[in-house]
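Why run this: before we spend reagent on co-expression, it is cheaper to look at a predicted model of the complex and decide which construct boundaries make sense. The entries below are exactly what would go into the expression plan.
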Amino acid sequence: MKERVAVLGAGALGTALSVLLGGKGIPVLLWGRNEETVRWLREKRYHPTRLTPEIILPPSVEVTSNPEEWISIPLLIYCLPAQAVREFFGRYRKDLHPEVKILLTAKGFELETGLSLDEVLREIYSSDWVEEHFAVLSGPMFALELARGLPTVSVVAGYKEGIRRFWQELLATPTFRVYTSDDVIGVEVAGALKNVIALAAGAVDGLGLGLNARAALITRGLAEITRFGVALGARPMTFIGLAGVGDLILTSTGDLSRNRMVGFRLGRGEPLEEVLKTTREVVEGIPTTKSVIRRAEELKVEIPIIHEVGEVLFHGKEIRKAVYDLMTRTLKAEIIV
Amino acid sequence: MKERVAVLGAGALGTALSVLLGGKGIPVLLWGRNEETVRWLREKRYHPTRLTPEIILPPSVEVTSNPEEWISIPLLIYCLPAQAVREFFGRYRKDLHPEVKILLTAKGFELETGLSLDEVLREIYSSDWVEEHFAVLSGPMFALELARGLPTVSVVAGYKEGIRRFWQELLATPTFRVYTSDDVIGVEVAGALKNVIALAAGAVDGLGLGLNARAALITRGLAEITRFGVALGARPMTFIGLAGVGDLILTSTGDLSRNRMVGFRLGRGEPLEEVLKTTREVVEGIPTTKSVIRRAEELKVEIPIIHEVGEVLFHGKEIRKAVYDLMTRTLKAEIIV
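The model came back. Tokens follow.
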């Protein structure tokens, strides 16, 4: 009998991972916070809004909204938003299984403190505990494609080799390939900051500036992500990998990305309030931009593109002016770190 | 009076660079090998096939097909194919201006020898001479967008700082941003091998495998390019820059790319001969694949994606089988170099 896995968060990725694990015959408890979504999933076996109706939960997937049911399970996959991490793990800290393994799919920087999720967890638990129990899943993964069984490649980062290998084995299928990495910080930073660059890349597309400009923006954005990550202790080569370049390409060029779409609409001239009013889901790139600008100042890291995104989002700077300012900076050597 | 520049090769990029330099008031001699194209360009002032008719050569651009006219000019921009480098510089070696500065835009590996263009030049000239006189221009540049004045960012790699700075200053405009790099080998390898990965990325799109698969293919392709480059003496961080990631993103996701289009049609099931019969221009990715596979064997570098491209192109392997073989390799850690 295979060990049971609890998936926390019945959004697109949580549901897709439940479909994947269920497809391997693994018993899954999918926990959602939204009663209505949970009821729909339980009765109709497909997600009401975030995936398509032909994607059906396999029989080994149970759906619940009751935390009592997952709290004792020693395998947790956290698929809730980044900004909910402190509250969530703060609340359930003492009740988790003592041998629990937790896989985070969220990436971001906490809005109030500017801390990475790894740093937030180290404030809640001891550092040793975090390193013993947590791992992060990242890489170029649109949930819809993953759920459809289209070929997808990802990376699991964890401090302990045993933990990384465990999740790698558990998740891999013939169409879902999982690499491992020990650079947890690098994978987290890459996953969080790509949302900001995707916003900017969307704006370049919305402005009609062309494919050269988009490729350059993504590349120079990657240089900023790398510098910022290295300043926090990440390894530079992580950013050339799946969690870095891979996810950045997907999010910045793929039509399915929310952050890109928000940037695109801004580039087309829609006011920010208008765009946000009609965007139902969390746009992680916006809080991340704010946190990262503050953190980069402390770390003395140069992040000109992210800085201009902040000017546009929070200080009403005209978007064409921001692009012009980026293009006409002093000429220099291409040095990344 | 500004110094005159000779642009060698009246294809898309040669013409676009002539438009750019002419727009800065620099006198340009654009040299083409095709009499008909040269006549058209001279009379109508736009390119007959490779750019759009609204892109007009500025008055300071002269067009010729006579080598006598450019041979004494000390500033040369080489925009002919990679496979023509040996023959071209072999022929004109002794006649070049003794203080000549040469900027190469071609990238590739010589089909017969498997050598990089840098290595080919070192066989023709002395190594010192190559380092004193040559530089390479690369980065995400579709010629059509460059000629239209859409924002474009590039990199000039050269062994000598004076040479790099010279071309940087000469080429830069408010919409064309030029960085410098001293990693000539890295920039060359990245520029050449991206064509092979673009072929594979096109095939993934043609097969309808989705955006996750495309992003993963590009990223794992970048890891192969990096490994191969490092084995030849390049610096790993070059591959995260404009000539690496930047150009790879552009060529692998942009609709304007020839190599991508050939891969796309193969992915859709068209036979290779059919595709090549209807592709007018040089598809650099095909000879590059052959040379690189041979060279990688000598260097003992693992290049599974490029290897599968070779299997499909030269040994009739079924394209779905190639993708399946890539996805089901042994699981491992994500190590790039």
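The CA atoms of residues 202 and 260 of chain B lie 4 Å apart. Chain B touches chain A through 63 residues (CB under 8 Å). Bring this page to Monday's planning discussion.
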